[in-house]
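User: hey, got a sec? need Dibenzothiophene monooxygenase folded
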Amino acid sequence: MTTREQVLDAARDVANHLALDALERDRANAEPFTEAELLRKAGLPSVLLPASIGGAGLPWSVALEVVREIARTDGSIAQLIAYHYVNAHNLVWVADDAGRARWGVPSVANQWLWGDSVNPVDPDLRLARDGEDWVLSGTKNFSTGASVGDVTLVGGLTDDGRDLLVLVPRETPGFVKGGDWDNLGQRLSASGSVRFDDVRITPDAVLGSASSSGAFGSLVTPSIQAAFGHFYLGVTRGALEAASEYTRTTSRPWLLSDVEKAVEDPYVLATYGRLVARLRAAEALGRSVGESLSQAHARGADLTWAERGEVAEEIAALKVVSSDLAVEATSAIYEVTGARATANKHGFDRFWRNVRTHTLHDPVQYKAREVGNHFLTGAHPDFTLYT
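Assistant: Yep! Here you go:
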């Protein structure tokens, strides 16, 4: 039996391994095939999948801890595993028993990573009928993990307006990866474009529809937003840990400080203190979110829309707090390390670049609005693939 402690030990081992050359890999901006294999060998892809198909069947709180742990040293690979957890969990949210077994058993046995091509604000993909099959066509500008994933979850629209989730194995003819992800941060997240040139989708590759799977299936959005929050918390802690090591070993006290070491400077101490205090509070909220989300998943088909809404609002609060803290803290570390810390050889900028890039996924102000609206009126936001 796989336990929470075993999974977190494996995640820490992966994080420590990734830390050895995190900066060099970030600058290389290569497709993360080696890193994906590291996740597979650690057994992390099957953490959430149910025991009925061979998975560990652990709660969502554990998966979120895995994301946070890996994000300490490599934000890109934390994004890969976070998106995988959400994509693969559509086997639980959306698929029927036959689909769950058909795709879940090999997914667990081979520790498959699932890529993502579902972004609802990206150009739509079309599914046209051809006998019993579907033909998938179109382009997605952003498709995290598709180039290195074993399968990719794809959201397409049919001619009669239905939205379907289908699975496309990596080497499927007509599935073209752009290899064009070259952004400020998250450089190894394999988030480039993909194109589907009349890809044939057989009936057994259709999982179902997220929009018609009820309150339980709608947990897809709170789950990915919870993963985002834990990702930001992990990067923040990683940035503070890296900065603190530099402050202890390399930073020099300011000439007007009247102290011998940077770690004795009252302003340095106060800056670290405020950031660490806020991080500890945000991490406590993150743990509460993990428990709430786990309980919501345990409700299964009995989950009500009101219960789902309460969980979504708590997660929205985490998104607001963790986003603001991550962007601020990853910049503020330079104030407690000093001018020499800006040397490219240290690479402290990668923490800020990663959170600055990913926090733009969806505007955090809309999450703040949701929290405020719920506080004042008790309202829950309508379900979308962003809320």
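Quick note: Strands lie at 114-117, 126-130, 133-140, 151-158, 163-169, 175-177, 194-201, 206-208. Let me know if you need anything else on Dibenzothiophene monooxygenase.
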